Amino acid sequence: MSTINAPSNIEHCWNVIGVTGDHSCPELSTHIHCRNCPVHSSAGRDLLERSPFENYRHEWTELFAQTGVGKHIDSNTLPTTETLTVMIFRLQQEWLALAVQVFQETTPPSVVHTIPHRSNQILRGLVNIRGELHLCISLSHLLNLQVTDITPQSINAVVYPRMLVMENTGNTWVFAVDEIYGIQRFHHNELRDPPKNMARANQTYSKGFFHWHSRIVSYLDDELLFTTLAKKVLP
Fold first, then answer.
1. Contact (Cβ atoms closer than 8 angstroms) between residue 136 and residue 116
2. Which of 4, 21, 46, 205 has its CB surrounded by the most CB atoms within 10 Å?
3. What is the pTM of this model?
4. Are 100 and 89 in contact (CB under 8 A)?
5. Which of the four pLDDT bands, split at 50, 70 and 90, describes residue 138?
6. What is the CA radius of gyration of the chain?
7. Rounded to 5 degrees, what angle do the CA atoms 113, 117, 121 make?
8. For residue 30, what pLDDT is reported?
9. Are residues 171 and 234 in contact, defined by beta-carbon separation less than 8 angstroms?
10. Which of 104, 98, 111, 122 has its CA nearest to residue 181?
């Protein structure tokens, strides 16, 4: 058997119940992505520290020789499709997505402490996250989402509100959501311009939308979002 494709005893739970599996792992609600989980980190260390298989170098040398690795490649022939990795969540009846890179963690709902003479519809107040106070905002009000008593059909079997923590240029923002689906990947060419009659999340903050699970997901412009928050909330 080829040592290049030789199986290992390392656990691959992320491919079964993790972000590249069926998303059923209960730890995803805490760690957001498998790469943040200690099980994934431990598996990575085991992989790096294990001894190479017998004839490992010889087989790779033969493989590179057969495939012509190292030859000149015309940059014009390289694939240009860009993959977008996003966190999908629900506010009111709207399914929204933000680039996963802006998020630090998810937490259970926390008590929001209002700030005298500062709290308003967008700035709700302060929340305690792991012993540190952070600004809590209402993304629903910032996006001008319509408040409704109608609950849309859920994606998950169990639905519970959470708080998402995101960070940009040293500023941390916390906001509550009604439901989190998790992390999803899209190709950039799947992104569509929002139709003019699209009565959904404020189009000002939307880069476009994806069709996903028979739903429309608005892909939010995180740079514009952070810029607006800094202007409207920070002193």
1. no
2. 205
3. 0.62
4. no
5. very high
6. 22
7. 65
8. 81
9. yes
10. 98
Q: Max CA-CA distance within the chain? A: 71
Q: How far apart are CA 95 and CA 184, in angstroms?
A: 13
pLDDT per position as a tens digit, 2-29: 444 444 455 678 788 887 788 888 888 8
CA-CA distance, 195 to 206, in Å (whole number)?
Answer: 11
- The residue type found at 31 is H
* pLDDT mean over 51-77: 57
Q: Which domains are delineated in the chain?
A: 13-72 (no CATH), 83-232 (2.40.50.180)
Mean of the pLDDT values across residues 117-138? Answer: 92
